[in-house]
Design brief:
- This protein is of the alpha/beta class.
- The chain is built from 15 helices and 19 strands.
- The longest helix has 15 residues.
- The chain starts with 16 loop residues before the first strand and ends in a 7-residue tail after the last helix.
- The N terminus is likely disordered.
- Bound molecules: cytidine-5'-triphosphate (CTP).
């Protein structure tokens, strides 16, 4: 898995203390990995398990992974005043229930307090975040009682995370699987991210384009898409609604981001044009091929044995960023455009020239050959005021910094 766009940077959850509650369900096996990922991201984790959860995974495993004794009972006398349900909830920055069974959701709705985990949830102070990751059979999930209960826990202040679709432990296929540990980790990281783009809509292009020569060959480049995917993720975590138009890359879609896959520059432009009216921020990170073969052959071009190479003519591709920057939406300030510049030398001069040429308020320069495919980079932000350096860091961190820089530059009327 790509370590930049999806996995958190070590430190994403630095200083955060998570109370991880496990209730009864086969998905408990995923909670072991979730615990490990939370800790890898810098959090400390206190695990609490219901009696039913202990039927699926042992507290020994969860203790070994969390490095703390697991708390199982409201009668656990290890806290001095014998009130684990008060202290463990108060100590946590966030309570995450994963998996959260149908029964446990019903217990939350009723405000039950006859075992430690529901007691702790009931005793949590107002404003203490409670995230729940439902996990159950598809019929149980679809049942009106469960849907009613989920709506009620959300109305009572919990954040109900989605469920996955697919094969279930019972052999059936449908909605109700617990989200994967990486997805849950992203949801927790997103919870703590400053919401500098709350209410904003962000459209991002990412990756290379592929310009067909014939059905089996084409022209492309080394762009991995990592920077664009990292920006899409950071924008989503910052509270924006994000759509990603991606060229051919092998990267998982960041949680909560909608993705449109395209191949060629013309397809990318078409997808951008179609969706642009709904968006207020456009970030063009894609390494769009400047030229394409004038004609793509319908069938594979064969060698004819003469040693002659086939003649090939090229035409210029549309400039997606420049096209977008010319729209009335961008010209009247309703759309904030951010371009990238992949240069090989004279970064500042080339980036400034490109910003003026493409008529965008912000252009982000980087040295292309030094960054393509890598997990880290250094950026130079160029705008009408001058330059801002974002020194060498992971693309994940740079994306978070860039999102903050974009938010800072939005016209006052549009900022969150
Ligand atoms: N871009 C685009 N459509 C193109 C070419 C570039 O949208 N056909 C966008 C890129 O996504 C990036 C910016 O324009 O945000 C600059 O891309 P870059 O490749 O650095 O510059 P070019 O415009 O191709 O100019 P040159 O190759 O001459 O440096």
């Amino acid at each position: 898995m790509d370590s930049c766009s999806v996995m958190p940077a070590a430190g994403d959850l630095q200083g955060r203390h998570i109370l991880l509650g496990l209730t009864g369900g086969v998905a408990c096996y995923k909670s072991a990995e979730l615990c490990r990922l939370l800790i890898k991201a810098g959090a400390t984790v206190q695990v609490m398990m219901t009696e039913a959860a202990c039927q699926f995974i042992t507290p020994v495993t969860m203790q070994a992974l969390s490095g703390r004794p697991v708390v199982l009972s409201q009668w656990d006398a290890r806290t001095a005043d014998n009130m684990p349900h008060i202290h463990l909830g108060r100590d946590a920055d966030l309570i995450l229930l994963a998996p959260c069974s149908a029964d446990f959701i019903a217990r939350l709705v009723q405000g039950r307090a006859d075992e430690l985990l529901s007691l702790t949830c009931l005793a949590r102070p107002a404003g203490k975040p409670l995230l729940i990751a439902p996990a159950m059979n598809r019929e149980m999930y679809a049942h009106p009682a469960t849907q009613r209960n989920l709506a009620q826990v959300a109305a009572d202040g919990a954040q109900v995370l989605g469920v996955g679709h697919g094969d279930q432990a019972c052999g059936e296929v449908g909605d109700g699987r617990m989200l994967e540990p990486e997805q849950l980790l992203q949801a927790v990281v997103a919870w703590f991210s400053p919401k500098v783009l709350a209410g904003q809509q962000v459209l991002v292009t990412a990756g290379p384009t592929f310009e067909a020569i014939d059905p089996v060959r084409g022209i492309t480049n080394h762009s991995s898409g990592k920077m664009g995917f990292a920006i899409a993720r950071a924008a989503q975590e910052a509270g924006a609604t994000v759509k990603l138009v991606a060229g051919p890359v092998h990267l998982p879609t960041p949680e909560g981001v909608t993705r449109i896959d395209v191949q060629s520059a013309r397809q990318m432009l078409e997808a951008v044009r179609l969706h642009l009216p709904e968006y207020g921020i456009f970030v063009a990170t894609a390494a769009v091929a400047d030229w394409r073969p004038a004609e793509a052959a319908e069938h594979k071009i064969k060698k004819d044995g003469s040693g002659q190479v086939p003649a090939m003519a090229f035409v210029e591709n549309p400039d997606i960023l420049a096209t977008v920057a010319q729209t009335p939406q961008a010209q009247n300030g309703a759309l904030f455009c951010v371009g990238f510049a992949a240069e090989s030398q004279d970064l500042e001069a080339n980036a400034q020239a490109k910003r003026v040429r493409k008529q965008v308020p912000l252009l982000v320069g980087n040295i292309g050959p030094a960054t393509f495919g890598k997990d880290d980079n250094a950026l130079l932000l160029v705008d009408a005021e001058g330059t801002t350096e974002l020194p060498h860091a992971s693309k994940r961190v740079l994306a978070q910094q860039l999102v903050a820089e974009i938010a800072r530059r939005l016209p006052d009327t549009r900022s969150a």
